[in-house]
Protein backbone atom coordinates (compact mmCIF):
# COMPACT_ATOMS: atom_id res chain seq x y z
CA UNK A 1 0.00 0.00 0.00
CA UNK A 2 2.76 2.42 0.94
CA UNK A 3 4.43 1.96 -2.43
CA UNK A 4 1.23 2.93 -4.18
CA UNK A 5 1.02 6.00 -1.99
CA UNK A 6 4.63 6.91 -2.78
CA UNK A 7 3.88 6.69 -6.46
CA UNK A 8 0.72 8.74 -6.30
CA UNK A 9 1.83 11.16 -3.62
CA UNK A 10 4.93 12.29 -5.39
CA UNK A 11 5.05 15.89 -4.29
CA UNK A 12 6.85 16.77 -1.06
CA UNK A 13 3.98 18.90 0.21
CA UNK A 14 1.61 16.03 -0.42
CA UNK A 15 3.94 13.71 1.44
CA UNK A 16 3.81 15.97 4.45
CA UNK A 17 0.04 16.12 4.22
CA UNK A 18 -0.07 12.32 3.99
CA UNK A 19 1.99 12.00 7.17
CA UNK A 20 -0.24 14.53 8.92
CA UNK A 21 -3.30 12.63 7.79
CA UNK A 22 -1.87 9.34 9.07
CA UNK A 23 -1.06 10.94 12.42
CA UNK A 24 -4.64 12.20 12.70
CA UNK A 25 -6.04 8.75 11.94
CA UNK A 26 -3.84 7.31 14.69
CA UNK A 27 -5.37 9.76 17.16
CA UNK A 28 -8.93 8.72 16.32
CA UNK A 29 -10.68 6.60 18.95
CA UNK A 30 -12.30 3.33 17.94
CA UNK A 31 -14.56 2.50 16.19
CA UNK A 32 -13.93 5.68 14.18
CA UNK A 33 -10.33 4.77 13.36
CA UNK A 34 -11.26 1.38 11.93
CA UNK A 35 -14.12 2.92 9.93
CA UNK A 36 -11.99 5.73 8.55
CA UNK A 37 -9.24 3.26 7.57
CA UNK A 38 -11.76 1.01 5.85
CA UNK A 39 -13.13 3.89 3.75
CA UNK A 40 -9.57 5.05 3.03
CA UNK A 41 -8.65 1.58 1.77
CA UNK A 42 -11.70 1.48 -0.49
CA UNK A 43 -10.89 4.95 -1.79
CA UNK A 44 -7.31 3.94 -2.64
CA UNK A 45 -8.41 0.90 -4.61
CA UNK A 46 -11.43 2.23 -6.39
CA UNK A 47 -11.27 5.99 -6.70
CA UNK A 48 -8.55 6.06 -9.36
CA UNK A 49 -7.56 9.57 -8.37
CA UNK A 50 -4.26 10.20 -10.09
CA UNK A 51 -3.54 13.63 -8.66
CA UNK A 52 -1.80 13.60 -5.27
CA UNK A 53 -3.19 16.96 -4.29
CA UNK A 54 -6.77 15.90 -5.02
CA UNK A 55 -6.24 12.69 -3.11
CA UNK A 56 -4.96 14.54 -0.06
CA UNK A 57 -7.92 16.91 -0.18
CA UNK A 58 -10.19 13.86 -0.24
CA UNK A 59 -8.41 12.27 2.72
CA UNK A 60 -8.40 15.55 4.67
CA UNK A 61 -12.15 15.81 4.17
CA UNK A 62 -12.55 12.19 5.23
CA UNK A 63 -10.62 12.63 8.47
CA UNK A 64 -12.49 15.89 9.19
CA UNK A 65 -15.75 13.95 9.07
CA UNK A 66 -14.60 11.25 11.47
CA UNK A 67 -12.87 13.62 13.90
CA UNK A 68 -16.03 15.64 14.18
CA UNK A 69 -18.23 12.65 14.80
CA UNK A 70 -15.74 10.99 17.14
CA UNK A 71 -16.03 14.12 19.30
CA UNK A 72 -19.83 13.84 19.21
CA UNK A 73 -19.88 10.09 19.73
CA UNK A 74 -22.16 9.67 16.70
CA UNK A 75 -22.96 5.97 16.11
CA UNK A 76 -21.01 4.58 13.13
CA UNK A 77 -24.14 3.53 11.23
CA UNK A 78 -25.46 7.06 11.51
CA UNK A 79 -22.35 8.26 9.69
CA UNK A 80 -21.92 5.68 6.94
CA UNK A 81 -25.45 4.22 6.82
CA UNK A 82 -26.56 0.66 6.21
CA UNK A 83 -24.66 0.52 2.93
CA UNK A 84 -21.15 1.91 3.39
CA UNK A 85 -20.42 1.39 -0.32
CA UNK A 86 -23.21 3.85 -1.14
CA UNK A 87 -21.66 6.36 1.23
CA UNK A 88 -18.14 5.79 -0.12
CA UNK A 89 -19.29 6.24 -3.72
CA UNK A 90 -21.17 9.45 -2.92
CA UNK A 91 -18.17 10.75 -1.03
CA UNK A 92 -15.66 9.83 -3.75
CA UNK A 93 -17.77 11.31 -6.55
CA UNK A 94 -16.68 14.77 -5.37
CA UNK A 95 -13.12 14.15 -6.46
CA UNK A 96 -13.90 12.61 -9.81
CA UNK A 97 -12.39 15.37 -11.95
CA UNK A 98 -9.05 13.61 -11.59
CA UNK A 99 -10.30 10.11 -12.21
CA UNK A 100 -8.43 8.39 -15.03
CA UNK A 101 -11.87 7.68 -16.50
CA UNK A 102 -12.54 11.42 -16.89
CA UNK A 103 -10.00 11.56 -19.70
CA UNK A 104 -11.67 8.59 -21.39
CA UNK A 105 -15.09 10.22 -21.04
CA UNK A 106 -13.83 13.27 -22.90
CA UNK A 107 -12.25 11.02 -25.53
CA UNK A 108 -15.54 9.15 -26.02
CA UNK A 109 -17.44 12.41 -26.47
CA UNK A 110 -14.84 13.66 -28.93
CA UNK A 111 -14.88 10.42 -30.94
CA UNK A 112 -18.66 10.44 -31.24
CA UNK A 113 -18.60 14.09 -32.22
CA UNK A 114 -16.22 13.23 -35.05
CA UNK A 115 -18.18 10.13 -36.04
CA UNK A 116 -21.38 12.15 -36.23
CA UNK A 117 -19.62 14.63 -38.47
CA UNK A 118 -20.05 17.52 -36.07
CA UNK A 119 -17.48 20.26 -35.89
CA UNK A 120 -16.34 20.79 -32.32
CA UNK B 1 -40.45 2.91 -0.90
CA UNK B 2 -36.94 1.94 0.26
CA UNK B 3 -34.59 1.72 -2.69
CA UNK B 4 -36.72 3.88 -4.98
CA UNK B 5 -36.72 6.86 -2.66
CA UNK B 6 -32.93 6.57 -2.27
CA UNK B 7 -32.52 6.69 -6.04
CA UNK B 8 -34.95 9.57 -6.48
CA UNK B 9 -33.42 11.56 -3.65
CA UNK B 10 -30.00 11.46 -5.30
CA UNK B 11 -31.02 14.04 -7.83
CA UNK B 12 -32.89 16.29 -5.46
CA UNK B 13 -30.88 16.27 -2.26
CA UNK B 14 -28.67 19.15 -3.39
CA UNK B 15 -31.75 21.30 -3.83
CA UNK B 16 -33.28 20.17 -0.55
CA UNK B 17 -30.11 21.08 1.36
CA UNK B 18 -29.88 24.46 -0.39
CA UNK B 19 -33.51 25.09 0.59
CA UNK B 20 -32.72 24.27 4.22
CA UNK B 21 -29.70 26.59 4.14
CA UNK B 22 -31.88 29.34 2.69
CA UNK B 23 -33.78 29.31 6.00
CA UNK B 24 -30.63 29.75 8.06
CA UNK B 25 -26.91 28.87 8.05
CA UNK B 26 -26.19 25.54 9.73
CA UNK B 27 -23.64 22.94 10.77
CA UNK B 28 -23.55 19.63 8.95
CA UNK B 29 -25.17 17.68 11.76
CA UNK B 30 -27.93 20.30 12.06
CA UNK B 31 -28.76 19.78 8.41
CA UNK B 32 -28.94 16.02 8.89
CA UNK B 33 -31.16 16.53 11.95
CA UNK B 34 -33.50 18.87 10.02
CA UNK B 35 -33.73 16.36 7.17
CA UNK B 36 -34.58 13.60 9.62
CA UNK B 37 -37.21 15.82 11.26
CA UNK B 38 -38.82 16.24 7.87
CA UNK B 39 -39.10 12.51 7.37
CA UNK B 40 -35.93 11.76 5.45
CA UNK B 41 -35.03 9.17 8.05
CA UNK B 42 -32.57 7.20 5.96
CA UNK B 43 -30.20 10.07 5.33
CA UNK B 44 -26.92 9.67 7.17
CA UNK B 45 -24.29 12.16 8.31
CA UNK B 46 -21.69 10.97 5.82
CA UNK B 47 -23.95 11.52 2.82
CA UNK B 48 -24.92 15.00 3.95
CA UNK B 49 -21.26 15.80 4.55
CA UNK B 50 -20.29 14.59 1.07
CA UNK B 51 -23.06 16.74 -0.34
CA UNK B 52 -21.91 19.82 1.55
CA UNK B 53 -18.37 19.29 0.27
CA UNK B 54 -19.80 19.20 -3.25
CA UNK B 55 -21.85 22.37 -2.74
CA UNK B 56 -18.71 24.04 -1.41
CA UNK B 57 -16.68 22.89 -4.43
CA UNK B 58 -19.35 24.26 -6.74
CA UNK B 59 -19.18 27.60 -4.92
CA UNK B 60 -22.86 27.55 -3.92
CA UNK B 61 -22.27 27.87 -0.18
CA UNK B 62 -19.92 29.86 2.00
CA UNK B 63 -18.11 28.08 4.80
CA UNK B 64 -16.95 29.51 8.10
CA UNK B 65 -15.11 27.65 10.82
CA UNK B 66 -16.49 28.06 14.31
CA UNK B 67 -14.68 26.81 17.42
CA UNK B 68 -16.35 23.91 19.18
CA UNK B 69 -16.49 23.00 22.89
CA UNK B 70 -15.30 19.50 22.19
CA UNK B 71 -13.38 18.28 19.19
CA UNK B 72 -12.21 20.15 16.10
CA UNK B 73 -13.71 23.45 14.84
CA UNK B 74 -17.05 23.01 13.08
CA UNK B 75 -17.91 24.24 9.62
CA UNK B 76 -20.93 26.50 9.35
CA UNK B 77 -22.50 26.52 5.90
CA UNK B 78 -24.49 29.39 4.49
CA UNK B 79 -26.15 30.01 1.15
CA UNK B 80 -24.40 32.62 -1.03
CA UNK B 81 -25.67 34.53 -4.08
CA UNK B 82 -24.74 31.78 -6.52
CA UNK B 83 -26.41 29.25 -4.24
CA UNK B 84 -29.62 31.31 -4.16
CA UNK B 85 -29.66 31.49 -7.95
CA UNK B 86 -29.09 27.73 -8.13
CA UNK B 87 -31.92 27.12 -5.67
CA UNK B 88 -34.28 29.23 -7.74
CA UNK B 89 -33.38 27.19 -10.81
CA UNK B 90 -33.91 24.01 -8.80
CA UNK B 91 -37.49 25.05 -7.89
CA UNK B 92 -38.24 25.92 -11.51
CA UNK B 93 -36.99 22.51 -12.63
CA UNK B 94 -38.89 20.85 -9.83
CA UNK B 95 -42.18 22.55 -10.78
CA UNK B 96 -41.65 21.48 -14.36
CA UNK B 97 -41.11 17.86 -13.32
CA UNK B 98 -44.09 17.78 -10.97
CA UNK B 99 -46.36 19.28 -13.61
CA UNK B 100 -45.27 16.77 -16.27
CA UNK B 101 -45.58 13.81 -13.94
CA UNK B 102 -49.02 14.88 -12.76
CA UNK B 103 -50.10 15.13 -16.37
CA UNK B 104 -48.85 11.59 -16.97
CA UNK B 105 -50.73 10.32 -13.95
CA UNK B 106 -53.97 12.01 -14.98
CA UNK B 107 -53.62 10.44 -18.41
CA UNK B 108 -53.28 7.08 -16.75
CA UNK B 109 -56.57 7.31 -14.82
CA UNK B 110 -58.60 8.76 -17.66
From TrEMBL, chain A:
Classification via InterPro entries: UCP029876
SUPFAM superfamilies the record matches: BH3980-like
Record Pfam families: DUF1048
Full protein name: DUF1048 domain-containing protein
Amino acid sequence: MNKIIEKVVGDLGDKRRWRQYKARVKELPEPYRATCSAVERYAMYFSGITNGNTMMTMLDNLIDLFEEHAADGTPIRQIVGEDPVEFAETFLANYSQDHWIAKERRRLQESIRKAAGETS
Amino acid sequence: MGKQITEMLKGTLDGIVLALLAESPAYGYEITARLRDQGFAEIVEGTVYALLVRLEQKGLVDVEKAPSEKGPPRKVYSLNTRGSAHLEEFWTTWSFLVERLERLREGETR
